Amino acid sequence: MNYILGAFKPACHISITFSDGKSRKQVPLKKENGQTVMVPLFQSQENISGKISIEPVSGKKVEHNGIKVELLGQIVRELDVPGEIYERKTYPFEFSTVEMPYETYNGVNVRLRYILKVTISRGYAGSIVEYQDFVVRNYGPPPSINNSIKMEVGIEDCLHIEFEYNKSKYHLKDVIIGKIYFLLVRIKIKNMDLEIRRRESTGSGANTHVETETLAKFELMDGAPVRGESIPIRLFLSPYELTPTYRNINNKFSVKYYLNLVLVDEEDRRYFKQQEITMFRLGETS
Amino acid sequence: MMIADGIEDEEKWLAEGIAGIQHNAFYLHRAVDSNNLREALKYSAQLLSELRTSRLSPHKYYELYMRAFDELRRLEMFFKDEERHGCSVLDLYELVQHAGNVLPRLYLLCTVGSVYIKSKEAPAKDVLKDLVEMCRSVQHPIRGLFLRSYLAQISRDKLPDIGSEYEGDGDTVMDAVDFVLQNFTEMNKLWVRMQHQGPIRVKEKLDKERSELRDLVGKNLHVLSQIEGVDLEIYKDTVLPRVLEQVVNCKDELAQHYLMDCIIQVFPDEYHLQTLETLLGAFPQLQPAVDIKTVLSQLMDRLSNYAASSAEVLPEFLQVEAFAKLSNAIGKVIEAQVEMPVVGAISLYVSLLTFALRVHSDRLDYVDQVLGACVKKLSGSPKLEDNKATKQVVALLTAPLEKYNDIDTALTLSNYPHVMDHLDAGTNKIMAMVLIQSIMKYNTCVSTAEKVDVLFELIKGLIKDIDGTLADELDEEDFKEEQNSVARLVHMLYNDDPEEMLQIICTVRKHIMAGGPKRLPFTVPPLVFSALKLVRRLQGLDGEVAGEEVPATPRKIFQLLNQIIEALSNVPSPELALRLYLQCAEAANDCDLEPVAYEFFTQAFVLYEEEVADSKAQVTSIHLIIGTLQRMNAFGVENRDTLTHKATGYSAKLLKKPDQCRAVYACSHLFWVDDQDGIKDGERFKLIFRHNWT
C-alpha cells in the first residue's frame, strides 16, 4: 500500500515479495486498525530475502534520489542510486542471518513489530514508502530443569490447602496437570477456578505501567469439599492466546504469566493464591 | 403459604430449565445434522449448563437430568461417527476438556469416554479410571450424585469383566471392581453430605429427599454383584471389606440401614454364609439409631430360605458355625447399643430363634441357648411393662410350640420357665393358656411325672396366685375359662404304666393343692376321675400283677383320693365333695374293697349331716347317696344295714313332706334290688312304708 506524503496520487506501485513466499508459513497479524492480515513467519537468524518491484503508474517516469530498503529499525540496504524509473524495475534484497531475538508482540501498551520499509526518496515531491510486516517467533527446546510447584497456603483456622502444578515452565500447547488438596475447610466454598493472567509491564522506575489481563477462567471445582478431598487439575493451554514469557525486552517491557487459584465462598468472598509460571515456545522438532 | 410458594417456584424453575435444554437441543440437533462439531460442542455445553442449577429438589432435578441424558445419548452417536465430524476420539477427548465450566465438561467427557472405550483404542480400565477420578471435581452433593450416576450408567456395559469384549490384561476383574467401588464410595459420601448442604430443612423432608436418591447409590452394589469375575474369593477379600468400610465410616444411619439391606439382598446367600463373621462384625459398629433388628432379621430369613432350598446346603451352615456367629453378633450388638430398648433385644432373639427352628430344628440346645440369652437380658432389665416387648416374649415362647407340635419338646427346654417368669402375671397366664391350647390342639399326651411337674410349673400362673395379683380382680368368665382349661389338661396327662400314672397323679395333686378355694372346685374333680380311671385299670390287671411290692394299688389310690377330696372342705364345697366320695365308693365297691367303700360312705354322710344345709341340696344329695348305695354289692349285711338305716333316717328328716316321701320311696329300693345278688328283704321293705305313713 502506498503511503504518500505530500501528493494526491501514488506515483508508482511498490511490491515486496519474499523469495520463499510460497513455502514460508503465514500467520495472522492483527494490525492497529483492527484488521487481521496473513504475513510470513520468520525465526531469529534466518535470512530475509526477496525482490522489490517498483513500477511507475500510468507510464510516467519517476525521478528519485535513491531507493532503500530497511529492516526497521535495524538494518538498511541501498537498492539504487539516484536516477529515474520509467518502467518496472526489480531489485533483489537480502538481510542475512538477522538477529531477531525478540518476538513480535502485540500487547496493551506495547507492540513489537518487524517491518520491511521501502523508501523512494524524492526531495520536494515527497518520498514514496511501502511497508511489509512480518512476524518473528523464536522456538526453543524444553528447559533442562522444570520443577513442579508445590505449596501449602491457608488462612489460620479457616482454610488450608496444598496445591501442586506439575511444572513451573509450560509451553504454549502444554497441559497444566496438578491437584488441590484440602487440609482444612471451615468455610462454605461454592466453587474454585484457575485463572491464567498476563501481566504486561512497560517503562521502568517511576514510569512503570502495569496492565493485567485474565486470559482464562477455568472452573476446577463445583461445590464444597471436605477435609481430605483432592481435586484434579487438567487445563489445556492450546485454546488460549498465550505468548512466551518476555523478561525485560530491550529494557522496554516484560510480559509475565500467572496462575491464579480462586476459591469463592457462599457469601461470594474470594480467596486466591497467585503463582508465576514461565511460558515458552516449544520447537517443533523437540 | 410459604411452602406452597416454594413448590410453585420450583415448578417454575424446572420449566425454565427444561425450556433451556430444549432451546439448546434444537441448535444442537441442527449442528449434528450438518456435522458441525464445534457448534455441537458449543450447544451441548450450554444445554448441560442447565444442570448447574441449585434451585431444584432432587426429585425435580432428576426430571431435568433425564432430559439432558436423552440428548447426550444422541450426541454420543454423533461422537462415535468420526467420518461425520472428522475428529479422532483421542482429540475429541481433549477437545471437550476445553469447556470452561466443570459440570458440562465432565458430562461431555463421560460421553466421549464411552465412545473411547467402545473404540478399543485404549484399555477400558484406563479410561474408566480417568473418568472416575476427574469426577471428583464436582463436590456438590446432588449434582455430583447425578454426574456419577451418569458415569455408572454409561460404564455398566463396558466394564473389563472376564469374558467381556473389554477384558483387559493383568488383573482385569480387579480393575472393574476398583472402578465400581470407587464410584460407589464417592457417591455414598456425596449422598450422606446432602443433609449438610443447603438451607436448614425439616428432618422428615430431608430424609424423604435423601431416600429418593438412595437407589442411585445402591445400584453400584448391584453392578458389583453382576460382575462375572467376582467370585467368592474376591467378594470376601475385596468387595465386602471395602463396602463395609464405607458403610461404617460414613456414620449416617439412613445410609447404613439402606446399604446393609442392599448388601444382603444383592449378593448370593452362599456368599453371606461364607462371610458371616465379617458381615456380622459390622453391626456393632453401626450408628445406634439404625434399626439393626430389621436388617438382621432379613439376613436370617434369607439364610433360612437358603437352608430350606436344598439339603446339601445344611452342612455348610454347620461348617461355618452360622448359628454361633449369629448368636454372638446379636449379643455384641445388644451390648454395644446400651440405649436399645428391651423390645429391640427381644425381637432380635425372636429372629434368631426363628432361624434356629427353621435351620437347625433338631438342635434343641440352640433353641434353649436363645431362650437363655433372652433370660439374661430380661434379668438385667426392670420388669417388663412395655406392651410390645411382652408381645415379643410371647412370640418367642410360642415359636417352639408351633414348630414342634409337641409339648414334650418345649418341656425339655431348660430356659423356657425362666423366660416365662419374666412375664407379668397377666401375660404369664395368657402364655399358660397358649401352652394348654397347644397340648389340646395336637392331642399330645404328657406322659411322665417329671414332665408334668415342669408343665405345671410353667402354668403356675393358672394354678395358683402369683404375687401381686388378687384373684378378685379377675373377670368371672375369664377365670372359669382358665380353670376349665386346666381341668381339660388334667385329662391329657396319661401313662400306660400304672406306677408312672400314680406319680403323675401325685404331682398334679401337689400343684393344685396350692390353688386355693376358688380353684379347687375346678381342679379336684378331673384329678379324682383320673385317679378313678387308674383304679379301674388296675382292677382289670388284678391278679396279673407280679408278686412284687408295688405302690400302685387301688387301696393306696383310694387313700390318696380321700386326701384329695378332703381339700374341698377348705373351699368349702360339700356337695361336690359328697359326689366325689360317692364316686369313690362306687369304684371301691367294684374293687371289692368293702371297708374302703364304707369309709367313703361315712365321709359322704358326715358331709351331709354337717355341711349340706340347703334343703334343695339336701334332697339332691340324699338321692345321690341312695342311688349309689343301691348299686353297692360289696357290702356285708351289717354295713349295708347301717348305711341304709342312715339313708332312710335322713330321708325322713327332709324338710318338705313331698321330698320326704320321695326319698323314703327311693330308699325302699335299697331293700329290694331286682337283680341276681340283690338284697331282697321283704320285712324291712314293709317297715319303711309303715314308718312313713305316720
UniProtKB/TrEMBL annotation, chain A:
Q: PANTHER family this protein is in?
A: VACUOLAR PROTEIN SORTING 26 RELATED (PTHR12233)
Q: What is the lineage of its organism?
A: Eukaryota, Viridiplantae, Streptophyta, Embryophyta, Tracheophyta
Q: What is this protein called?
A: Vacuolar protein sorting-associated protein 26A isoform X2
Q: Which Pfam families match?
A: Vps26
Tell me which family the UniProt entry assigns to this protein: Belongs to the VPS26 family.
Gene encoding this polypeptide? LOC113714805
Superkingdom of origin: Eukaryota
Automatic annotation (TrEMBL), chain B:
A Gene Ontology annotation in the biological process aspect, one of them, is: retrograde transport, endosome to Golgi
- A GO cellular component entry from the record: endosome membrane
Q: Which Gene3D superfamilies match?
A: Vacuolar protein sorting-associated protein 35, helical subcomplex Vps35-C
Q: Which domain of life is it from?
A: Eukaryota
Q: Where in the cell is it found?
A: Cytoplasm; Endosome membrane; Golgi apparatus, trans-Golgi network membrane; Prevacuolar compartment membrane
Query: What keywords were assigned to this record?
Result: Cytoplasm, Endosome, Golgi apparatus, Membrane, Protein transport, Transport
Keyword Isomerase in the entry? The reply is no
Q: Which InterPro entries does this entry report, sorted A to Z?
A: ARM-type_fold (IPR016024), Vps35 (IPR005378), Vps35_C (IPR042491)
> Which membrane topology describes this protein?
Peripheral membrane protein
Q: What is its main location?
A: cytoplasm
What the protein does comes down to: Plays a role in vesicular protein sorting.
Family membership, please give it: Belongs to the VPS35 family.
Q: Can you name this protein?
A: Vacuolar protein sorting-associated protein 35
The source organism is: Coffea arabica
